Amino acid sequence: MKKRFYIETTIPSCYFEARSMPEMVARREWTRAWWARAKGREQLVTSVAVLGELARGDFPARDECLRLLKPLPVLPADPAIEEIVDAYIARKVMPRDPLGDALHLALASYHRCDFLLTWNCQHLANATKFEHIRRVNVLLGLFVPALVTPLQLLGGPDEVR
Q: Is 4-154 assigned to CATH 3.40.50.1010?
């Protein structure tokens, strides 16, 4: 059975990253390698929140980012999502911006995505925050997606699947 991956805003941004700093080149290559491997093999989904963030952005690859995500199913923002976002903010799981990280986590959790794929290692793919996120999701009766970067999913040549 295919795993469901919520594609957060930083993924298409890194896919088309143009900066030449070594860490940015590495993220771009890891993102592209994961995408090539996962496309067709996994269920990739996104949200109106991601598409909106990208559309509002002012950066050279904006249109390419939106084209990359165009074929993906878009998760609906059901009314319950706003309550989940409010709970995350009230319990200090995520920053106060209701249209930011809390919204991505709420969407991935509510829609039972196996993974939330991101390069946001401050608020989402952060091992020191994961236990707090897990506890709050369990308290709210929500699924707990794995919060990961593409690098964590690449594996090696001996990977068994």
A: yes
